Amino acid sequence: MSINTILFDLDGTLIDTAPDLAYALNSLLEENGLSPRSFEQIKPLVAFGGKALVKFGFECHQDHPDFT
After folding, report:
1. What is the rounded average pLDDT for all residues in the chain?
2. What is the pTM of this model?
3. Is residue 9 annotated as a catalytic residue, yes or no?
4. DSSP string of 14-54?
5. 33, 36, 6: which is closest to 24 by C-alpha?
6. Residue 41, C-beta contacts closer than 8 angstroms, at least 6 positions apart
7. pLDDT tens readout for residues 26-56
8. Are 57 and 28 in contact (CB under 8 A)?
9. What are phi and psi of 7, to 5 degrees?
């Protein structure tokens, strides 16, 4: 049996990506004229994925028509 693909879960398991994701969210917020959020606020949400970060950062529920 040969292995063709290996997948890794990188949400803190092997690499701490929370600082990068916080930077990305804050960059988007600033581009849209919104205030950045603190790393302490963002870090616990990283494990819940991009939708959670967008909902938090933009204070927008996923049922909102602009949430895509």
Report:
1. 88
2. 0.76
3. yes
4. SS--HHHHHHHHHHHHHHTT-----HHHHGGGGGG-HHHHH
5. 36
6. 56
7. 999 999 999 999 999 999 999 898 889 999 9
8. yes
9. -110, 145
The pair of structure tokens assigned to 56 is: 């938090």
pLDDT above 80 for 66: no
Closest CA to 51 of 38, 41, 61: 61
- Strand ranges (DSSP E) for the chain? none
- Of 9, 16, 63, 66, which one is the catalytic site residue? 9
- Residue whose token pair is 């988007």: 28
pLDDT at residue number 9:
66
Q: Specify the amino acid at residue 64.
A: H
Q: How far apart are alpha carbons 26 and 6 in whole angstroms?
A: 31
